[in-house]
Amino acid sequence: MIAAVTLFLIVSISALITKIAATALVHTGLSSESAKFQARSAYTGTGFSTVESESIMGHPIRRKIIYQLMLIGNAGIVTAMSSLILTFVLPETLASRLYGLLIIVAGMGLIFWAIRSKMVDRALSKLINTLLRKYTNLEVHDFAAVLHLKDDYKISEARVDHDGWMCHRTLEELDLRQEGITILGVDRKGHGYFGSPSGSFKILPHDRVTLYGKAEGIQSLYNRKKDHYAFLEHDRMVAEEAERQIEEDRGLSEIVETKENQNKRSI
């Protein structure tokens, strides 16, 4: 029984640890899904090699979080296996084994519910955020809210090819702002990261460009090569963005007019 309870506590603590680590990774700028994947990967020692893994190794805070997860994960997995063996091997009676199995099944069911529960997730995230602010120097920001990553807006990273439309052109020549796309930064191998580059900055082959804008516009940019179609596509996206801006301005004017009419009625 003690071994079964111990196993339940270890799994619960493990889930809590990976949740804390994932939340901390999110606050360093990593996306929520990537943070969860990397936290679980590091804790279990699976060691998947992805682009996010490379970005973690190059970030001192993320690297420290992952390093601690790997150390804790090794100890946790060994302890969990020991408790599991003690639960089913040492008991001499069938009743004791069934009782241990019942505790494990019920405990795992409770943990599964807690992991899937949005209410528990919100409460736990709020608590972790408070503790991170209080006991660490980690800057806690909701990047998804700050960058308005909804309504089809997204952040994406693209690798520039030799035959890509962006290659060997300055940001001023690309004129992506007219399409509603902003280049947040450019990672150039051997030269480091260029944050918020100016209009005279030239995009080179193999640059990794971080983009912010509408998903449709970013996808269109990915598909462009150095041909006549690329310029037509650019013009089309510029026209659509201009039309969207007009619609937004019209909607804003209607809201202002409605509020003014309401104020007049109240007077």
From TrEMBL:
Instruction: Please list the GO biological process terms of this entry.
Output: potassium ion transport
Ranges where the RCK C-terminal domain occurs? 138-227
One example of the protein's molecular function in GO is: monoatomic cation transmembrane transporter activity
* UniProt KW keywords: Membrane, Transmembrane, Transmembrane helix
Q: Which Pfam families match?
A: TrkA_C
Membrane-crossing residue ranges in chain numbering: 6-30, 65-90, 96-115
Q: Which SUPFAM superfamilies match?
A: TrkA C-terminal domain-like
What InterPro entries does its record include? RCK_C (IPR006037), RCK_C_sf (IPR036721)
Q: What is this protein called?
A: Potassium transporter TrkA
Its source organism is: Nonlabens spongiae
The record lists the lineage as: Bacteria, Pseudomonadati, Bacteroidota, Flavobacteriia, Flavobacteriales
